[in-house]
Design goal:
With about 210 residues, the chain is an alpha/beta fold. It contains ten helices and five strands, in the order H-H-E-H-E-H-E-H-H-H-H-H-E-E-H. The protein has two domains: about 30 residues, no CATH class; about 170 residues, Beta-carbonic Anhydrase, Chain A. The chain is globular, with a radius of gyration of 19 Å.
Amino acid sequence: MSDLSNLLKQNREWAARMERERPGFFGMLRSQQRPRYLWIGCSDSRVPANEIVDLPPGEVFVHRNVANLVVHSDLNALSTIEFATRVLGVTDIIVCGHYGCGGITAALQPVQDRIVDHWLRHVRDIAKFYREELEAIDDPEARNRRLCELNVAVQVVHVQESPVIIELREKGHDIRVHGWIYDVGDGLLRDITGLVEKVRAREPGCA
């Protein structure tokens, strides 16, 4: 049996430090949840949402899965989007992918009959749709990075075209969806929202 006592110890130290630095912080969290942003990101342990944007608990409502996908049949992701926007009042949604994503790498390789391959079929569909552009890139790492970017852009469109976002916008709500990519190698985020219009122009329904 694993001994996780070190994690419990670190938790107590963290809680004590937070209370010292921000007296009443946990009482405030207990009384309300009013995050400013919804973050849809990858499950990768190297991409912790709050930490890389230097925000404390309570500021970011987070949904994560392998390769940061928003699939029309994924009730988990769609419920998160609905709760964040309708209940919590979030108006800025960030879809954040990252370079070196294991899911993207796996999607560029032959199917190995794993459960995750069923999930990554969505990324493979994107790779097929943009095959000509991707195959024109000789360097495998650069090709991988480009698919990471295209995947983010497609998922932004999926969020924009989700029923709850369409309905809210029709009612006059200003819901903004951003596409970001994180580089694990330098710790920097890059805004690639401009790529979304290129993706939308290619195929309104996306991959």
